[in-house]
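Hello Y.,

Per our agreement to keep a running log of every chain we model this quarter, I'm adding this entry. I've kept the format consistent with earlier entries: sequence first, then predicted structure.
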Amino acid sequence: MFTSGHVIGKRYQVRSELGEGSGGEVYEVLDLRSGAVLALKIQQPRYLESTNAYALYRKDVRQEIALGTSLGGISGVVIPLKSGNHLGRAYFVMDRIDGFDLGEFARRAQPVSSVRSAAVLVQLCTVLHQVHSRGFVHRDIKLENALISRGGVVTLIDLGSSAPSGEVPEVPAGTFGYLAPESTSCGVAETSLDIFSAGCLLFRMLTMEFPFLNKTGYAMVRRRLPIGKLVNVDPVVRRICVAMLEWEPVNRPTAAEVRDELSVVLPDASSPAPPRLSHDPVRWWWERIQRQERAPMSS
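Predicted structure for the entry above:
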């Protein structure tokens, strides 16, 4: 862990730690050349790993850099700006999102309302649809891998586990509690994996619980979804959440279908303005609709 004031790559001065996970450490840094405040993700330090194993972790960071660059033009994905090596550890810098992850968003609400959950999923699935359309699967959708800004904008992060759709990745990925049942037997990266994980994310926001969880973290044995926990949820949101958590991958909706179905729950252009709340995806949606209404018709 780097302390405040440490300079990475002779350019990025650490201001504070933003987070840590298996993929690396994330810091808020000051670019000493431009004066911009950015986020920097750096490979974990080496502990007892073999040289080959540590090289694989470095490969994950470099893969995240390459994939982020290839997904340029997609709104809602953090794109690497610069990359390098520091003390033998690969790193890259990206824009700093002024907000926090959806795990904190859910903890503050306990639980998140149906309409706010729908507004989050509409944004998240808009991003996922574009990622899937580019031929990639994220493979680690969870509350902690999506950020929400003060303005209510949702951003997907941590692309290090992503893989081309239809291929068998070298290393398994995913987080316990969000893993699709086929994760234990099928190594192929399919977009339906992301949909199931996003369904778990939605269920967690709505109930503060995982839909399927046992000691292994996998939904290994076919079990009945505890729909009773969704009794107070908007009927449309409940129906979509259940569909996303279908046991059979072919029965799950696509990201675009989730986006379109949940959009009907959100305010339209004639709806009263929602309160001005910080980190509110519903307000973001309403303001977006208002901008579209005011946009001049093209000739």
